[in-house]
Amino acid sequence: MLLKKVCMLGSFAVGKTSLVRRYVDGFFSDTYLTTVGVKLVNKVVKAGKAEVTLVLWDLSGDDEFQRMRWTYLKGAHGYLLMADGTRAATLAKAEELEDAMRKEFGAKPFVFLINKSDRRAEWEVEPAWQDGLVARGWDVMHTSAKTGEGVEEAFRKLTAKMLL
Amino acid sequence: MPDEPIFRLPLDPDEEVTSGHGGSFEQLRHLILAPEQEDLARLRARVESPETRTRDLSAVLPEAIAMRRAAGGEEALGEALRPTVETALRESVRKDPGTLADALFPVMGPAIRRSILQTLRSFFDSFNEAIDHSLSLRGLQWRFEALRTGRSFSEIILLHSLVFRVEQVFLIHKKTGLPLAHAVAPAVAMQDASLVSGMLSALQDFVRDSFHSAKGEILEKINVGELEVWVEDGPYAILAAVIRGIPPPDYRLRMAETLEQIHRNYAGQMERFEGDTAPFAGATDDLTRCLEFQYKEKQGSKQTSYALVFAGVLFVLLAGWWSYRAWENHRWGQFVETLRGEPGLVVTDFERRHGRYEIRGLRDPLAADPQVLLRGAGLESQDAEFHWAGYYAMDDVILEKRAGALLRPSSNVKLSVSDGVLRAEGEASTTWATEVRERALLVPGIRGVDFSQLTDTDQAEFNRLKGLVQAAIIRFPLSSATPMPEDLERLRGLMPQVRALLEKAQLLRKSVEVEVVGHSDSSGVESTNIPLSQSRAERVVYELARDGVSRGVLRSRGVASLEPLRKEESEESRQYNRSVTFRVVASNAGASGATSATIPGAMRSARP
Lengths: 164, 608
Prior knowledge:
Chain A is of the alpha/beta class. Helix content of chain A is 32%, strand content 27%. In chain B, strands 1, 2, 3, 4, 5 and 6 form a six-stranded antiparallel beta sheet that branches. In chain B, strands 10, 11, 12 and 13 form a four-stranded mixed beta sheet that branches. In chain B, strands 14-17-15-16 form a four-stranded mixed beta sheet.
C-alpha cells in the first residue's frame, strides 16, 4: 500500500474543511479541529495503475485566534495550499504560508487552490498576480468545494507531483 | 660475536655455503629463525588458501554454533541464519517439494493431531463457558447487555471473561504519522489504520507542544473507559497498542522488545520511508505476536457444578416429562383402541388439544358408556372430551340389546341375535310370540326371526288340561243315569278346566270336540245297557252345557260295556265301568290330530 501524508493549508474559512467533508472519507468529527487542531481524512487517488491513499491533515486555519501547529506539518509528502478567491487577504496569506513551509521543511510538492470558483464574480484575484505565481513554478487551480469543480483534478495533480 | 661460524645448518640444501660476515649472519639467522619462518610460511599458506580455510572452519563450525548458543546468543544466531535457512527451504521446495514433504511427514501428523485436539478442547471450553453463562443470573444480565448494545452474546462473554486483550497494534512512522504495519485481533471492529495512526501521532505532538515536554518524552498511555492505549517510542517509529482491560506491567517490556527488534530489522527502510508500506509486511507478524490476551480465572468449579446440576435436573425433568407424555399418549391410544373394538362405538377422530384428549365419533345409545370405560382404563375423566353423534349400530350385540329393550321378553325367554336374525329360547305364550314376531321386524337391524327353540306355554297348558279332562271318570250308581254325589261334585270341579281347555284351543286356533263317552258294566243285557250308557253321557253333556260349555263342541256317545275301563274282577272295578269318560279331539286349521307342544316351523317367518 502506498500512503502519502498531505496537509491542507490556508487561512481560516477558505473552504478546506468543506472540501474534505464532501469529497473524502473519514470518521473524525469537525470538533477535532477546534480541540486538537487537526482532523484526518483519507482520499484514495488512482495514479496510473497504482492506488495512492492520501492521508489528509486538515489543519485549523492560521489566524489570530488559532495558531496553526507547525509540528503537524512535519513529514508531509505534499500539501494543498488554499485561498478564498473572494478574500484578497487569504491570497496573500497563502504566499506567506508557502514561504514559511519551504523555509521550515524544504521544497515540498504542493498545489495552490483558489477556492470558491462558484462565486467568480466576487473574486479579488488579480490575473497578473496569478501569472506571477505560475511563472514561479506554482500549480494554480480554481476549485469550488460547493460544486466540486476542480477538486478531483487537484488531488490527482498533487498525487502526480508527489510520485515524481 | 665469533668471526667464524662454529657450526652451521644449511637452511636450504641447494644453498651455497659462503664465508665471511654476511654468510655467518645468514647462517645464524637460519639457525635461530628457521623453525618460526617455516611455521609462518605454512600458516600464511593456510590463511591464504580458501580450501584450507574452509576445511578449518568446517572442523569447528558445529562447535562454534553450539558455543554461541550456550553463551545465550541464540536469538541473534537464529536471526542471522533465518534468511539463509528460509532461502534454502524455498529453494528446496522449488526444486523438489517431495524432499521437504518426506522430511516433514513424521512431524505433520502429530502437529495436525495436536491442532485438532486443541481446536476441540477450545470448543469444549467455550461450550462449557457458554453453558455456565447461559444458566447463571450473570449470563442473563450479559444477554440483556448484548441485546441493549447490539453486540453478539459471545462478544459480551469475551469482554467480561477477559482480564485484558490487546485488540490492535499499530507501528506508526514517527515523522509522517503514517502506519507502517497494523495488526488487529479477531472480531475487533477496526477503524482506518492510517487515520488512527495519524491522529495518535497528532495527539503526541499536541500534548508535547501543549505542555512543552522535552523532546524525547512522549504520551505513554491514554485511558479511554475500558480501553487503554499504550505507546512505546523508538527512533523512527512508535508502537501503539490498543488494550481492553488491564494488561500486566511486563507487557510494556514486550512492546519495547518488539519495537527494538523492528528497528534492528527495518531501521534503514524506516528512515527512507516515502509512503510505501510493502517493505514492512514482515513486521506485521511481530505486531501479531503482541496481540496478547488473558482470560479470567474460573470463579471456582462450584458455579460450574451448580450449573451442571441445574442442567442435569432440567434434563431429567424434561426426560421425565417426555416419558410421562409418551406413556400417557400410549395409554390413551390403547383406550381409543378399546373404544374402537367396542360394539356400537365408532371413533372417527382422536387428538390432544389444550392438554385434553378429544375423541369424536358415532355412538349407539345402547353402546357401553365411554365414561365408564374410561374409569375402567384408569384414566381421568376430566382429561377427556367426548363428542358423540348418535347412530344405529348393526352389531349383533347391540341388536340383541335393542331387541331386548323394545320387545321386553319375560324372564322365561332368552333373546339372542346372530347375523341380524333374532332367536328366542325358553317359554312364551302364543300371544307374546305372535305379537313379538311382528314387532321384531320393526326393530332397526333385525332382518329375521327364529322362534323354533321357543316353547309355547299355551299349547302346554292346553295339553295339560286335555290330559286332565281325559283322565276324569264320572261314576254312576247301578242302573242310574245320575252321577254318584261325589262324582257329580268332581264333574262340577272339572267344568272350569273344560272351559279353560276350550279357551286355550281357541287361542291356539284349534277346533276341538269333547266326546263324552257313556259306559255300563257288563251285567244286564246290552239292549238296556246301550240306552243307559247313552243317558249317562247325555246327562254329563247336559251338566256341561248348563254350566256354559257350548253344545257345539260336545258329542255324547253310549258304548255300553264295549269299551270297559277295567276288567270286571271285583265290585270296585265294575263300578269304574259304570261311568262317563272324556276324549278331546283337537285339530289345527285344516289339519287334524296334531297336538305337538312346539310351535310349528310356520311360526318362523322371514322378510322377503
